[in-house]
Predict the structure.
Amino acid sequence: TQLLEQSPQFLSIQEGENLTVYCNSSSVFSSLQWYRQEPGEGPVLLVTVVTGGEVKKLKRLTFQFGDARKDSSLHITAAQPGDTGLYLCAGANLGSNYKLTFGKGTLLTVNP
Amino acid sequence: DAGVIQSPRHEVTEMGQEVTLRCKPISGHNSLFWYRQTMMRGLELLIYFNNNVPIDDSGMPEDRFSAKMPNASFSTLKIQPSEPRDSAVYFCASTRQPAMNTEAFFGQGTRLTVV
């Protein structure tokens, strides 16, 4: 079983602060995705990274895939209350027919 | 497209009763997933269908759980008999043909409470 560990589990910050959350595994993944989930809703895809060392930016969010494709990070600059939510990483592999394995998530609260 | 549609949104049932959760995937998507989400265990994959055929059911907790996909536009997850520890939010998700960068689209979930 391929496990994804996310840290921190909970994070509460003030509006305007920067933050980084992490997604780590001992296994290599073909691709890694980040989702955000709001209360009462299902997860929604933010980004997919597929190449070791890849960096993708989505406005104030920066995603990085580790060189060995075992870990990833999400950095948010100048966090806003609208960034509040559960951030989930999910890995996929050809060998498992690309089924997604999710981490438990980081619950982010941005206070105004 | 209306997205992935799940019903009911909320279900409260007594221990021992049968529960059936329903899912309509996005039209044209070939793969369907059932997940269970709890605070303790996060989002767990229960079963995965591709072209209506179960590919991986290794996450189904025990024989009390069963899932079917009789056609490309409908799937059910049944729990019989239900137990309090089955209380969770159950999500259905669908994707196009699985690939490295395929996006999973999730429904709004069914919150199940077994008392």
Summary: Chain A touches chain B through 26 residues (CB under 8 Å).
